[in-house]
Amino acid sequence: MVRCLELARQGAGAVSPNPMVGSVIVCDGEVVGEGYHEAFGGPHAEVNAIASVGDGAVLRRSTLYVNLEPCSHHGKTPPCADLIVEKGIRRVVIGCGDPNPQVAGRGVAKLRSAGVEVLEGVLEAESKRLNEAFMTSHAEGRPFVALKLAETLDGRIATADGQSKWITGDAARLEVHRLRCSYDAVLSGAATIRADGSRLTVRHCAGRNPLRVVLDPSLSLSPDAPVFGDEAKTLLFASQSMEGSPSALRYAAIGVEMVFVEEGTGGLDLRAVLDELHRRQVLSVLVESGGRLSASLARERLLDKLYMFIAPKLFGGDALASFAPLGVSSPDEAPAFRFEPPRLVGEDVLLEAYTVR
Ligand code: AOF
Ligand code: ZN
User: Fold this and answer.
1) Which residue of 5, 10, 71 sits with most ligand 1 atoms within 8 Å of its CB, as the best mutation to test the pocket?
2) pTM for this one?
3) What is the ipTM of this complex?
């Protein structure tokens, strides 16, 4: 199963909105075949693994390992559960169930009713974690939302003068670009984009550019801003009241796609933004923004994960905090997180934390 997960990861950045899946075939204690889901719309992991074993007699004596329940539906490809039965594979070992309502247990049921021995839940937590975006998208009906912060030891993202370049070092910057590749979308607000001259593209490593999502309620950014450059697609969210305005027409003229949503108290209605991204099959969003948007996401309990790059520096209490006021009066009201083991990235520390709900 460890090898399945390793294989599955090779599909990162190429399979969304489908899950990352790897499969290994074992006969008499030896790996005789393997495969993974390589591209969206392409053959599933199980199909590739089975195809890699030429000999039908070997398959009939083998166990198939896969990190996600085999599918039972006719999608862009025929059901993998049927293929497994047809090939006479006797035993299947599964990492975790498939939350896709078209599958959701039916894959396992199909296998069992055909007499295949099925073992479920092997490295289940690791399997769910690998596809956390796919899982959240099905379970919550919205994208998985991660917030990236580059801050000082005292939780500051800019000096009192508003300077934020550069808090963390080169290694952290490279790591952020790697993160961008693995997310379907990168989201930021107009003020941060203006202050940083952000492009929100992947430049320090090889990989595809995610969709850029810009929140600019009053369409204040210039259409010439680097974030609208044509090296990646940008989706611009603005307030409903801007629809048909002269500024909106200027963006339309340069081919930037706009979505108009209602405005709440602290800016655009974030649930409406996430709803729209979900409709567009965006499974995961990496937010790289300022303290106001970070606080709104935390307040509305929309954060699934934090990536905090912490620089060994102090800016002090007059500098800009990573979160605007949250209105937490007692510790038990605070949004709470669970740390992953910390990791040194160059001279900085990367703390990953998951929301505890
Ligand atoms: C994959 N790759 O290796 C497995 C998947 O539209 P389709 O036919 O490609 O089906 C997509 C669904 O199939 C997907 O949402 C998931 O529920 C299931 N399993 N998908 O893309 C794979 N095993
Ligand atoms: Zn399948």
Assistant:
1) 71
2) 0.93
3) 0.88
